[in-house]
């Protein structure tokens, strides 16, 4: 296993499960230069307030990069030794790709292919959306399916995988 795979952690969980807090703690305690790669878009005032609160909570010790679509390219551009990069979150990225009509399969493969060659310590966060009932509409089912396939690829490449529920981490791999 390459060094970069040993430095890749994937964190899954439901909404408000404590995923981001757990991920931020991993990066903070790493002692490395902290980078936050945000994929969310402010579609309305409430989402903008959430984004602003997340930035304020992290504080000035983080460098924030916002990239809603070209995640792999931005991650490659900020990759480097001595850095820890928190990607938050893959499901927001998938939403953006779907809304923009992008090739999700190709984008997913490109991201998974980047992990083995990355030099930075990577911590990747995503929402687990496949534990509930079958969604009632086509778009929601496609989203769930894309997320499930992407999660399998990232988990296969990561050295560590955690599932977070009620703020408690369950180590699934590593």
TrEMBL record:
Gene Ontology molecular functions: adenosylcobinamide kinase activity; ATP binding; cobinamide phosphate guanylyltransferase activity; GTP binding
Keyword ATP-binding: yes
Keyword ATP-binding appears in the UniProt entry: yes
Binding site for GTP: 13-20, 38-40, 55-58, 66, 88
Catalytic activity entry: adenosylcob(III)inamide + GTP = adenosylcob(III)inamide phosphate + GDP + H(+); adenosylcob(III)inamide phosphate + GTP + H(+) = adenosylcob(III)inamide-GDP + diphosphate; adenosylcob(III)inamide + ATP = adenosylcob(III)inamide phosphate + ADP + H(+)
Active-site residue list: 54
EC number: 2.7.1.156, 2.7.7.62
Pathway(s): Cofactor biosynthesis; adenosylcobalamin biosynthesis; adenosylcobalamin from cob(II)yrinate a,c-diamide: step 6/7; Cofactor biosynthesis; adenosylcobalamin biosynthesis; adenosylcobalamin from cob(II)yrinate a,c-diamide: step 5/7
Source superkingdom: Bacteria
Family annotation (NCBIfam families): PRK05800.1
Record-stated family: Belongs to the CobU/CobP family.
Biological role: Catalyzes ATP-dependent phosphorylation of adenosylcobinamide and addition of GMP to adenosylcobinamide phosphate.
Entry protein name: Bifunctional adenosylcobalamin biosynthesis protein
């Amino acid at each position: 296993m390459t060094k970069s795979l040993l430095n890749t952690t994937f964190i899954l969980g439901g909404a408000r499960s404590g995923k981001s807090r757990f991920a931020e703690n991993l990066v903070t305690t790493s002692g490395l230069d902290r980078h936050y790669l945000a994929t969310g878009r402010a579609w309305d005032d409430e989402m903008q307030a959430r984004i602003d609160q997340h930035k304020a909570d992290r504080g000035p010790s983080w460098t924030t990069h916002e990239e809603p679509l070209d995640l792999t390219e931005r991650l490659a551009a900020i990759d480097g030794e001595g850095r820890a990069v928190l990607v938050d979150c893959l499901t927001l990225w998938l939403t953006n790709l779907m809304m923009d009509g992008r090739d999700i399969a190709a984008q997913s493969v490109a991201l998974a292919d980047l992990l083995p060659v990355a030099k930075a310590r990577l911590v990747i966060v995503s929402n687990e959306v496949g534990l509930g009932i079958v969604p009632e509409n086509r778009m929601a089912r496609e989203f769930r399916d894309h997320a499930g396939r992407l999660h399998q690829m990232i988990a296969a490449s990561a050295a560590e995988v955690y599932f977070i529920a009620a703020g408690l981490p369950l180590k699934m791999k590593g």
